[in-house]
Design a protein that fits this description.
Rossmann fold; alpha/beta; 6-stranded parallel β-sheet
Length: 429
Amino acid sequence: MPADTSRPFVILTTAVAGLGHLRVTRALRDALPAKVSSIEIPAKDTWLTMFHNVMSNNSLLRKIFEYTQDTPQLEDAFTWITRQGLHLTSSRVRRLIVDTVRESKKNPTSVVIACSHFMLAESVGVEKQAIEAELGIPVRLVVQITDDTTQHIWYVTGADLLVAPSVHVASSLHAYGVAHHMADTPISVLPYPINPLFSKPLNPGPHERLAEYEGKAPLKLVIPVSGAAAGLSYLTDLAIHISNSHDAIHTTIVGQATPRLKSTRRQLLRAKNIKCICAKSEDDVITAYENYYKENVVGAEVTKPSEQAFKVLARHDQVGGSILFLTHPVGRQEYENLEFLFRNRFIPTPSERRELFALARYHQTPSTAIRRQARYWRGLQLPPIPKEAASFIHWCLETKLLADMGLVTRKAPSLQPDGAKEFWDIALN
């Protein structure tokens, strides 16, 4: 279908800092209106990728970094230093944007730049006026915040619009901007942008997923491995414990074909009821993961409380409506994502979680009160020990607790599964 030249030319940007930012960019790309011309620019920043991988896998450095995130004075210092460093190299980003528009030969009357990572967004923001002058057309910078995080670095210099997944984040960032006398940037609250695939209705209906929860069919459990392979040892041990103890669970692991995962794959394939999909690139990992959901009715998923946690917005009768088993949080943003899930009753409270762990440990049946609360839950946190986590998953299946979960449909506008579409409704207007 030909592009609509009366509409803006869209540039999607991201950063290779884990799969989260890439997944959000994919969700936004797949939700773009059909007649809008667009191009995707991945930020190939070797330093950023290395920094993300080290922080994901080195516990000591991660704790030091988390301390700076959790201490206001240190966070402000980190934010200032990061911004200054990005401003020093921003001319390179200006050249990239200008060349991209010119080489597209679309001759647009305006450009919308959608960013799902603060680093490239900050560089674009300080160069936005220069980009407009060089191209001779208006440029609009829209930034999607990719966690329910209040980290100050997301208050991007020069942005025309910030899109936050909750009022909590919007209010906090607005207060930060006022306190630091920064330009008053509009902040809209929209549902988190999950891929439109996940909000499609299950075909022919939710009964296949329910059959998995009721033990009438094997539970299809998918485990996506992060780009940095964070927590791979935990996930490997978990999958093997499930394989050794529970024939009713069929596990599929999806990740990038790194040396670590290739080595682990040989160990995993010796176990029963485990498949391992190794994709060549990070983009291929996302495609393989989405294809698995297209081709299977997935009952449950083990994942980090990263941007993946927002798949709770998909309903139980939709493609992405699998139950999420959440591993231990890593980094401030994952703790904040859990707070989002607590606030909106998508997962049990800490006291309810402790009660569930105790019931599972002693093989007891959930009470009527627990089952009543479970109607709101779309996810459960896992114990930190793989063997206990495997037993907990089996207990949830054995007691049919999963069949009680996620039956309540949210009414709040910010908790709907169509955030990617809503993003473009405001970004293009």
